[in-house]
Amino acid sequence: MQNNAAVKFTAANDVAADEAELLALEREYCSWGDTVHYTEAPKIFESCDGSFMRDAAGRSFLDLQMWYSAVNFGYSNRRLNDALKRQIDRLPQVASQYLHREKIELAAMIAKDAEAKFGHKGRVHFNVGGSQAVEDSLKIVRNASNGKSLMFAFEGGYHGRTLGASAITSSYRYRRRYGHFSDRAQFIPFPYHFRGPKGMSKEEYGMLCVKQFERLFESEYNGVWDPKTGQCEYAAFYVEPLQGTGGYVIPPMNFFSELKKVLDKYGILLVVDEIQMGLYRTGKLWSIEHFGVQPDVLVFGKALTNGLNPLSGVWAKEALINPTIFPPGSTHSTFNANPLGTAVALETLKLTREQDFEASVMRKGAYFLEGLKELQRRHKIVGDVDGLGLALRAEICEPHDSYTPSKALVDRMSDEGMKGDLTYKGRNYGLVLDVGGYHKNVLTLAPSLMISMEEIDMAVALLDQLFTRVTRN
User: Fold this and answer.
1) Residues 430-457: b if buried by 16+ CB within 10 A, e if exposed
2) Distance (Å, rounded) from C-alpha 86 to C-alpha 309?
3) Disulfide-capable partner of 272 in 53, 295, 375, 424 (CB 3.0 to 4.6 Å)?
């Protein structure tokens, strides 16, 4: 009779052999043009639930990025999964030139909520991915501004990698190989206080950034404003209320209200990108709600379907999107309001109305942030921590000054987290981390909104081990 150790050894060998075969096939036949292969040997996962991913060997990995904040409500959320299954059995497909109940009810729910919060009637237009929704918003803005194609956007901002979206994303590396099929945005400094001028408070630096932007309108020779006609060459300003890929940078609370005054004065639309920070990531349905301003256009996606059937969308004020100005056929995608996506999204919004995510996310976020502050006190490599709700950041720096960015340390953290040999209460775990920031040295932490306090304690303990490990090696 085979003993247990031999059985486990054989099973482990079988798993390793199967994984090696899959990786060999992947190297031969899969494009590397997406985000795979940032590390030498990409991880293959087999299952997931709650806050955890699991590999074929059964090792659990605590996920602190949740598919780039697309799975806010936990992996394999039974309620949302069941909504998808019900729709598959009833109405899984329908051409978008026709209507279905879920699309109408979802659009009405989003639009009525926006009207109550922002004081303006509006309409909702659906698409599939976040970049596609940004493209749709660009069409809405250009159409409403008589074809103006120039936009403002922030340094460190990210709005997608399609040709139009990459033109308003500040990273040149997303455009470098493809040339320009759209006018590139003019990029404005974001109030990134940790790396801003020393001796200024967060609020003072935010006001400085607004004043620097307003200088562009002092005379025609600043290049954007014609005082004789009172017209700006730029149609809109694209913003993320909290920068996502830029490193979860959180501006001062008065920043957007002051910026909006300038935009309104010079007739520039405010387009708010909520693709990563929406759906209660920051403790509000839309993160812009924290800042007390009303957008003209709002773009959303990702967690709307909890990472199930893709769905994204645009809310815009009535004057920008009503059928007389934006008639049928203005923009279209075959799967834009697909019944599977809209059914899950409708259930997601019902879930958020039945449970007090605002209170729970703010409570959990404050608890997690205190844990990160304790890690900052204990580890010199942690230069800055910050958070709003469960959008949290830990900026990793060289230990000699706790300020010089250290991409190398963060890269090692990502690799070490994938080994699955960190320990908590006598068991081994891995850590799924996401990296962002201007210098690619920021751990951008976006755990499940359903994460428990025990799991937050585990996250802090595993990060503590990880920080110690990478500074000793």
Assistant:
1) bbbbbbbbbbbbbbbbbbbbbbeeebbe
2) 13
3) 295
Q: List pLDDT tens digits, range 222-276.
A: 999 999 999 999 999 999 999 999 999 999 999 999 999 999 999 999 999 999 9
Give the count of beta carbons closer than 10 Å to the beta carbon of residue 373. Answer: 15
Closest to 462 measured CA to CA, from 417, 426, 418: 417
Interval 330-344 mean pLDDT: 95
The span from the CA of 14 to the CA of 363, in Å, is 44
- DSSP conformational letter for 383: E
Q: Could you give the strand order of the β-sheet that contains 422-424, starting from the edge strand earlier in sequence?
A: 47-49, 52-54, 60-63, 427-432, 422-424
Prediction pTM value? 0.95
DSSP class of residue 184? P
Q: How far is CA 226 from each of CA 218, 219, 265, rounded to the nearest angstrom? A: 10, 8, 13
Rama region for 135: left / alpha / beta (φ>0; ψ in -120 to 50; rest): alpha
Burial grade of 255 (CB within 10 A; 0-12, 13-18, 19 or more): buried
**Cα–Cα distance, 256 to 243 (Å, whole number):** 13
439 with 246: CB under 8 angstroms?
no
CB neighbours (10 Å) of residue 101?
A: 12
> What pLDDT is attached to residue 37?
79
* CA atoms of 233 and 240, how far apart (whole Å): 22
Alpha-carbon distance of 3 to 132, in angstroms, equals 56
User: Which H/E stretch holds residue 261?
Assistant: helix 255-265
Among candidates 75, 79, 81, 77, which has minimal Cα distance to 63?
75
DSSP-assigned letters across all residues of 126-154: EESSHHHHHHHHHHHHHHHTTT--EEEEE
Q: Please, are residues 151 and 235 in contact by the beta-carbon 8 Å criterion? A: yes
| Residue 335 CB-density burial (10 A; 0-12 exposed, 13-18 middle, 19+ buried) | middle
For CA atoms 354, 357, 358, 364, the dihedral sign is positive
Domains of the chain by range and CATH? 43-73+357-472 (3.90.1150.10), 80-354 (3.40.640.10)
Tens digits of per-residue pLDDT, 54-63?
Answer: 999 999 999 9
| Range from 33-47, 187-201, 340-354 carrying the lowest mean pLDDT | 33-47
Q: Is 61 helix (H, G, I), strand (E, B) or coil?
A: strand
